[in-house]
Structures are given as structure tokens and as C-alpha cells.
Amino acid sequence: MVGTRSDGAGGELLESIYSVLVLALVLVACVELGDAATAVDVYRLIQYDIAGVPFGSRLAGLNHHAGSSLSTTNADLSRTAVILPVRELNLTLLNEFITRKQPLGGLLLLLPQRTGSRESSEKIHGDSLTRSILVELEKLLIHSYIPYPVYFAFENGKLNSILADVRRSDATGQPASATSGGYKLVVSSWEPKKVSAPTITNIQGWLPGLKEDDDTNQLPTIAIVAFYDTFGAAPALSVGSDSNGSGVVALLEIARLFSRLYSNPKTRGKYNLLFGLTSGGPYNYNGTLKWLRSFDQRLRESIDYAICLNSIGSWNNELWVHVSKPPENAYIKQVFDGLSDIAQDMGVKIGIKHKKINISNPRVAWEHEQFSRVRVTALTLSELSVPPELLESTGGLHDSRNIVDETAVYRSVKLVAESLARHIYGKQGRNIQIFAESSSLAINPSYIALWLDLLSRTPRVAPFLEKTNSFISALKKELSDHTVEVYGTHESIDGIFTFYDSTTATLNIYQVASVTFDLLLLLVLGAYIILLFCFLVITTRGVDDLINMFRRPTSRKSKAA
Amino acid sequence: MTMFHFVNCVILTFGPHAVYYSATPLSEYDTIGTSVKALVVYLVTTLVKLICLATFLKVSETDTFDPYQELMRTLIGFIDIAGIYFALTQLTHRNISQAHKFQAVGLGWAFADSVLYRLAPLWIGARGLEFTWEYIFQGLEANANLVLNLSLAALVSLMWLRKNKPKTVIPIIYACAVILASMPSTVSYLRKALGWQPLKVVGFELTSSLVMAFISWQLYYACQRQV
């Protein structure tokens, strides 16, 4: 009795040990292996719908062998991830490839390293060439439906050497595949999900003017507006230094200058200044529209005029004033004359362009058109001479820090601030400098440079900026340092736009051996083991033993027979 | 296809042990018990070695070659000889001949070494997508190690178990045993201080093990003849 009981206990113990062992083995087998030769940060092409029509890259997961060219005939492109450096990109070929909807496993576009500083003229020439390619590429990718994953990565030594390897093996007519080995590009990513209820945040701040006690009328308001969000082929790379980082920086600097003037009651003007950092700029200035709608009628009527700042960071000698009312209009003429007076003093040219609003057209090309639609006099100051198309010039791939010239922003600030000051203090036509260089009211170039640097590091595609994003808080904080009544309003983006997440990922590049190699290795190893066996048998037991080993079964059979 | 590679590497790493056991008379005399005992002794010896290493050596973060540290390491490596000696003499073996005993002990010793130091890296590394030659080299190293351990076991058995050996051979036996026991340090010296490529290191290991095996065999043969 006792014996059986202890036997049972021992059996249970054994069983539990076995189960623990099995569990351990299963756990070991499930350990995810993350040992790649190279892991690169990659940025996915944007995926979005406009009114249900899909655009951009529709997939995120990638697991294919690497190739180096779209035109290889002997490779199965639908199972190849092609690596193309943007520097040497053949755009017409790519364009044809995409428009013909040819199958492809995936696309990895290598962007040239971003350099923070300005380089020699030769380099700049190369940059401008790459820049024009980038502009075209971005246009193509944004407006196409691409059923495979498209990623961007920055060139680096490792990627370049891998690309060289891939090219070499492609050149020998042995494109990478399961049978020939090579490099494998792997992005493990789940299916992109819709960004639920994307919001845009408009930020505004006031500098209230000096109201005389007996004056019951509301003071007139001048609004300075710039949109701060961006849109580009790679949402995680759309920093938009020029469009519209430059406008944001100029707005902040103007706010800073006037906050100094308005802090002293003696120099406080008889105008309220309203500063608006709007979002949703790329989407027909959707945020501006909603911001304006949130104003009450009295406030809207009190706005004397609004100046919208858009892309003012890379002009040389000519800026444009875009208006929707004819230039002969008295208000427009007054503002434009004020601006062109200063421009003349500064030795820069300023032109005016009139574009009528077509109410039935949903496209809003300039931010001031939203103001004009609610009958507020407004103009846009920009270096762009023609109105951009939808999702164009919104701070995409090419729009990085090195194309923005701080002095251009400086001059823009000077232009706007001086003309505003002359208007506010009624000094039109008089040659005085309020923000003279060595005065205490001088424009601060390092402030401009610092903010440009920050903006050039911060991707700002609105649907991927949460309400509580640190950049938005930083903007709010900065504006509240200079102005009062700063607050942000959260609105939802125009419903026709849908966005999908997973904008960044990690690309693992593995060097894989081919099946053929594994088979060969197995054959060699088998031969080695057999030879070793024969050798050992012969040396320790003699040749006869070896022969006997293979004969024995037959001899037994014969015996049995 | 990575499982395939893993299987290949396992065959290369552990195949020779199995082949050695089954092809030589070891299997006929059923010496598996001796090998298992040697394996256990190996585990204990390794534990002792690890304790010694932890006591006497500093943990070096860098992969550089430090002569003093390596000397200590070599000295600690001689514990191996003691372990093999223990396995050969102190354990009660079934009635098998001297020749088979040292082979069984050497085999168990090498197998334990391979399992302890090579199985886990193989399992983790060779199943990855990334292909490297590392695990194939490691398998070749395991082969060299098998030969080295067999030679070492042979020499140790000569040193202490065979009483009447020719006087002239004795210093050679001791010298060879020292060389064999310090082989891991030599390899690490080549790898770290001279910066040899893995291919070169593995080549060296293979050739040196074969040379040492040949010398040990000659020594063993010489002693055998004496009897």
C-alpha cells in the first residue's frame, strides 16, 4: 500500500518535471530573434484617403529580397524590394512603373543625408538638383495609389555598401531570391490603422491696444496669421522649414517685438494685435476656416486687416503679396503701399498678385482667401508667385533646414513689423526705423535661427500631432510669453481626409544564405561524417569490419533463407 | 530555411562525437557509462573553474588581451587535467581496457564542452535570418576540440596510469599535456592580441589539433610497445 502510494507520488513528480521541461522548451522555441546585421530607421510613405479614394502606400509590412533596379527582366519584381537612391533616381522610369501599376514587392528610397550647414557651391548645385527630383518624386508618390510598401531612409555607409553589393549581384545576372541568397529587407509591422478622429489645434494670442477711457468703440484689430502644420510624402520627415516654418518663426518674432512695444503704455498702439497659429494649412486651410467661424461677429468686423505669412524663408529679392480683392481696393492699396514703402527702403522688390475667389471651387489656395470669404480684408505674403495646388508646397521632403535662409526670414520680419508699426502709430510715408538694428527693439537673428532649428527638427503633420503634443505646448508657451489670452482650440480635420498610422518603422536587413547553399553544405557535411566514420572504423577495427557492417543484413537474410 | 542551417550546424558540431562513438570499438564495449561519468566530472570541473575565474580574474569590459589575466586563465585551465585525471582514476569503471577508457573519457569531456558552450549560441544564433559563417566555424572548432580532448585524455592516462614508460618520453608527455591544456589560451591570444580572422583561427585550431593528435598517438604507441 505504502509502496504504491510512493510510486504514484514519484510518477506525478516525474510528470510535473516533464511538463515543466516541455514548457521550457516551448518558451525557448518562441523566443523572438532580433539579431539583424543592420537595423535602419525608415519612414513610410503617407497613406491617406480623400473622400474615400485611396492614395499613397497601402501596406506597411515588408519581407522580400533586395533588388537594385526596376528594369531587371529576369527577376520576379513582385517579390523584390527595390532600393533606389534618390540622388540617381530615374523619375520617368519610376513614373511609368507606378502609372502602369506594375507589381513590386516594396520600394526603399534612399534620401541624401541632411546637412545642417551650408556647403560649397558645387554641393549646393547638387542639392538643388536633388531638390527638384524630390519635389517631383513627392508629387508623384502623394498622388498615386501604390499597393506595396514604400519607405524612405537616409543614406549611410552601411546602406550604401549593401546597395553596392546588391548591384554587383544584380549585374552578374543573379538577382536575389530564395535560391540564390542575398539581402533580405524585413519590416515587421501590422496593418496600418486609421487615425481615429484626427484633430487640428489652432493657437491664438492677443496684444490688446490702449483704449482711451471715453472711447466706447471697440479698437480695430490687425491679425497676423501663419499655419504651422505640414504635409509630405513621409509624415515623419515633413518638417517644413520653409513652408511654413519660416512663417511661424516670423510670426513669433513679430509677436515678441510688439510685446515689447505694447508692454509700455506710452508705446502701446491703438490697435489690438491678434496672432494666430493655425493648423490644417495643407487641407484647404481647414483650421483657419474653423478658427474664423469660432469668432463672433463683432470680433470679425473689428479686424482691420489680416496678414498671412506663408513660405518666406528662401527668397532672394522678390516677395509677393497675394490678394483676392482687386489691388485698386482702398484697404488693400493702403496695406500694400505701406509694405512697398518699407521694401523700397530695404532695397527689395515686392509685387502684388490678384486672384479672384471662386466660391464653388473647394480649393483654397491661400490662407487669406478664408478671411476674404468671410469678408475680412486679408493678404498673404509669400515668396511663391503662383498659388500652390492641393498638398503642394506644404513642407515635404525637400523642405529642410538647409534651404531656408535666416536672412530672408529676418528681412520678412523687418518688412512686416515696420509696416505694421508705421500703420499702428500713423507714421506712414515717413522714413523712420522703429526696429533699427542696434536699438533695444532690434530683430533678434539668433531667436529666428533657434526657432527655425527647432521647427526643422519637428515633423508636424496635423493628424499625427496629438492634442497634447509637446511641440504644440511649446508654441503655446512661446506665444504666451509675448501675448495674453493665449489658448488653443481643437477642431476635427475636414471629414473627406482619412489618414493611416505607422509612419515610422525599423527596417532589418539580413544577409541570407540560399537554399542551394544549405543543401550543398548538408551534402558536404554528410560526406564528411561518412568519411570520418569509414576512417575511424578502418583505423580501429580494420577494413573487413567496415565491409561486414554493410554485408551483415544480407548475410543474415541468406542464413535465414 | 534557417532551421535547415541550424540542423546543418548541429550535424557539424555534434556529429563527429556520435560517429566517433559508434565507429570505434567504444560502442562494442558499451562505454557510454564512462562517457556520461566523464560528462558529470566535466560539469563539476567547469563549476570549479568558473568559481576560480570569478575569484581571481577581473571582469574585463573590453575585448583586449591582458597577459596577466590570460596567464591566470591558463593556470586555471590546468584544472582540466586534474578533472580528467579524476575521471580516469577515481571513478569506478566497468571492466574496460585502458585504451577504451581514455577514449570514452575524452569523448564525454569533449561532448560536454560542446553542449555547454556551443548548443545555446547555436540555438539562438543559427536560427536567425541573418547568415554568418560564425556557426560553421564554431562547428569546426568543436571538431578540433574533440581531437584535442582525446589527445589530452590519452596523455593524462599515460602520465598517471602507465607505470613503466620509457624515461626519454616522460618530459615530452608532460610538455605535450601542458601545450594541450593551454590551447584555449593560445587561441584566445591569437584572436585578441594578434587579431586573427576567424577563418585563420579555425584553420590553426584544426591543424594544431591534428598535429597534437599525431604526436600523442606516437607517444601512446611508443609506450604501448614498451610493455
Provide keyphrases for this structure:
heterodimer, A: 561 residues, alpha/beta, Aminopeptidase, 4 domains, eight-stranded mixed sheet, seven-stranded mixed barrel, 40% helix, 21% strand, elongated, disordered N terminus, disordered C terminus, B: 227 residues, mainly alpha, 0% strand
Q: What is the count of helical runs of chain A? A: 14
Major β-sheet strand ordering of chain A:
15-14-16-13-11-12-10-17
- How many domains is the backbone of chain B divided into? 1
Task: Estimate what percentage of residues of chain B fall within beta strands.
Answer: under 5%
Work out the helix count of chain B.
Answer: 9
Mean pLDDT of chain B: 83
What overall geometry of chain B do the principal axes of the alpha carbons give?
globular
**What's the alpha carbon Rg of chain A, rounded to whole Å?**
34 Å
CATH fold group of the largest domain in chain A: Aminopeptidase
Question: Rg of chain B to the nearest angstrom?
Answer: 18 Å
Helix amount of chain B: over 70%
Quaternary state reads heterodimer
Structural class of chain A: alpha/beta
By CATH, the superfamily of the largest domain in chain A comes out as Zn-dependent exopeptidases
Q: Which sheet architecture does the biggest sheet of chain A show?
A: 8 strands, mixed
Measured by DSSP, the beta-strand proportion of chain A falls in 15-25%
Mean pLDDT of chain A: 85
Q: Give the % helix of chain A.
A: 40-55%
The chain-level structural class of chain B is mainly alpha
| Low-pLDDT segments of chain B | none
List the helices and strands and how they pair.
The complex is a heterodimer of chains A (561) and B (227).
Chain A: H1 2-30, E1 38-44, E2 47-50, E3 53-57, E4 62-67, E5 80-85, H2 91-99, E6 106-111, H3 121-142, E7 145-146, E8 150-154, H4 157-171, E9 182-187, E10 199-207, E11 221-227, H5 241-263, E12 272-278, H6 286-294, H7 297-302, E13 303-310, E14 318-323, H8 330-346, E15 349-354, H9 367-373, E16 378-382, H10 406-424, H11 445-455, H12 470-482, E17 484-492, E18 497-499, E19 504-512, H13 515-541, H14 543-560
Parallel strand pairs in A: 3-7, 4-5, 5-6, 6-8, 11-12, 11-13, 13-16, 14-15
Antiparallel strand pairs in A: 1-8, 1-19, 2-3, 2-18, 4-9, 9-19, 10-12, 10-17, 14-16
Helix pairs in contact in A: 5-10, 5-11, 5-12, 8-10, 10-11, 13-14
Chain B: H1 2-23, H2 32-56, H3 67-77, H4 79-89, H5 98-126, H6 134-161, H7 169-181, H8 183-192, H9 198-226
